[in-house]
Amino acid sequence: MAWYVGRRLLQMIPVFLGATLLVYALVFLVPGDPIHALAGDKPMTPAVEAQLRARYHLDEPFLVQYLLYLKGIVTLDFGTAFSGRPVRDELARAFPITIKLAFMAVLIESVFGVLFGLIAGLRKGKLFDSAMLVISLVVIAVPVFVVGFLAQFLLGVKWGIAPVTVSGKATVGELLVPAIVLGSLSFAYVLRLTRNSVAENMSADYVRTATAKGLRRPRVVTVHILRNSMIPVVTFVGADLGALMGGAIVTEGIFNIPGVGGTLYQAITRGEPPTVVSFVTVLIVIFLLTNLLVDLLYAALDPRIRYA
Question: Where does the pLDDT of residue 279 fall: very low under 50, low under 70, confident under 90, or very high at 90 and above?
C-alpha cells in the first residue's frame, strides 16, 4: 500500500506542474496590464510603476516568473496581493469557510443520495423509485442560483427559520441552507448513480448465491449489494468535492459567504493575478489529494483491487 501511495504521489507531480503552468499562463498572459489596472484612472509615475513591477516580478520573463512562483509555493510564500495584504492571510481566512461548506454539502449529498438511491434501487419500478427519478430530474433541471434564491426567500425572508446571509463566523447552523443548495445538484446525481448500481447488482450472480446460502436480507443488501454499488458513487463524490469548492461562487454570492468563491471572484474582477493563481493552485492540490483518497477507497470497497 505504501508503494502504491508513493507511486501515485509521483504521478501527481507532472499533473501539478502542468496544471499550475497552464493556470499561470492563462492568468498572466491575458490581455491587459495588472499594474495599470491597479492604478485605475489615477496617473502613475514611471518610478512607482517600475517599483511595482519589480515587487511582483512582472519585469522578469514568463518562465522566470513561473519558477519564482513555484519557489514561493514550496516555501508557502504565496506572495502579496495588490491590496498589500499577504495572499497567505487571504487563504487562511477564506479556505476554512469553503472547506466547511463543501464538506457539509458532500455529507448531505452522500448520506441522503445513497439512502434514497438504495431504497429506489431495491424498489425498482415501484412508486418510490418513480418519485425519486422525477425529483432528481427536477433538481437537475433547475439551476443552482434559482434554488439558492428560492431557499433564501422562503426559509430566510418569508418563514424566518434560517439566516438570510452568513456572518463572518460562518457557523454550521448558518451554512446548513447554503450547503443544501450547493449539494442539491450533486445529490440528484448521487441518487441516480446509487439507484442504477443497486438495481444492476440486484441481479448479479454473487447476490443470488448469497441469498441461496441463506444469508439474511440486511447482510446481503449492505455487504454484497451496497458495497459493490459504491465504486461509481465514490468516484463521483471524490471529484465533486473539488468541483464544489471551485464552483461555490454562486452559492457564496447569494448568501454573502466570505469564502473562496467570493474572494476569487473579487480577485478576478480587480485583476489580481497572485491571488487568483494561489487560490486555484490550492484547489488543484485539494483535487489531487481527493483523487488519491478515492483510489485508496477503491481498494477498501473492492477486494480484487486490493489484492491486485
Answer: confident
Interhelix angle for 87-122 vs 273-301, to 10°? 30
Which has the minimum average pLDDT: 115-119, 138-142, 258-262? 258-262
Q: Which residues contact 237 (CB under 8 A, 6 or more apart)?
A: 106, 109, 110, 186, 190
Phi, psi angles (nearest 5°) of residue 80: -125, 135
Mean pLDDT across the stretch 222-249?
80
Q: Give the cell for residue 20.
A: 499550475
Length of the chain: 308
Percent of the residues in the chain that have a pLDDT greater than 70, as a whole number: 88
Residue 110 and residue 282: Cα distance in Å, rounded?
A: 24
Sign of the CA dihedral with 178 first, then 242, 170, and 250 last: negative
The residue that leads in pLDDT, 81 or 195, is 195
Cell of 213: 446460502
DSSP 162-175: S-SS--TT--HHHH
- Spell out the residues 6+ positions from residue 173 whose beta carbon is closer than 8 angstroms to its own: 163
From residue 304, how far is each of 219, 220, 298 by CA, in Å? 20, 19, 9
Residues 55, 91: Cα–Cα separation, whole Å: 20
Residue type, 11: Q
